[in-house]
Amino acid sequence: MEDERAGDIRVPLISSLFCLFVTTGGIFLVLYVFVPSLSQPWYPVVAFVLIGSPWLFWLFTYIYTCMKGCYGGGRPEGQISRRQTTRVASSATMQNGSNQQNSSVASSKESELPLAYSV
């Protein structure tokens, strides 16, 4: 899984694109404010759109994430998360006797899920 993420170009590409947008929007805004003889009336509109584009992207990402959770776009039925499979495998190893240590964590009957997941 880590090997797949190592070659992923999406995050640096989007970050570079947002940096370019904000810088270009700032240039348009500076030209409009400090050099009125060279500026056009559409400069501030384009500047605010370019500067606000990262905010719109994250707002739409947040809305998408909320809607995906509301409409069942989460984990499909029967799929087990990686966290659950590692716990099952480690408890099976302890029960088979290959690991003879009696750990208080392994023998505990408490839920190991963080509070946010158990609520």
TrEMBL record:
Residue spans of biased composition, Polar residues class: 82-108
Keyword Lyase in record: no
Positions of region (Disordered): 82-119
Membrane-spanning ranges: 12-35, 41-65
Source superkingdom: Eukaryota
Keyword tags: Membrane, Transmembrane, Transmembrane helix
PANTHER family the record matches: MEMBRANE LIPOPROTEIN, MEMBRANE LIPOPROTEIN-RELATED
Protein name: Transmembrane protein
